[in-house]
Amino acid sequence: MHCQKETTKKIRAKEADYALQVKGNQKNLKGEIAAYFHKVRRDNPEKLAEQSDIDGEHGRVIERKYSLLPISESLDGIDACTDIKKLGRSEPNSSPAR
Q1: What pTM, to 2 d.p., does this model score?
Q2: Which positions ≥6 away from 60 have C-beta within 8 Å?
């Protein structure tokens, strides 16, 4: 297995796209990304592209909100991702089906 930095370089060398998930073991980066989304939503909501959908399968209703932002070079640790252009966020909200 490669680390994410090596993997993203190989993907971009073939001019392909990629998406990576930031998890709890990347607490600093995850926190900075959450703060960046909050700051943009508060100060520059026009930069935030959002869409939502509702799914009612499997006995519950799940509403997901998807958000997309241009990258900020000020995010510490983001430089490990080769040619990164956007940050995406998915926020699920589930409730029992009626």
Answers
A1: 0.71
A2: 94, 95, 96, 97
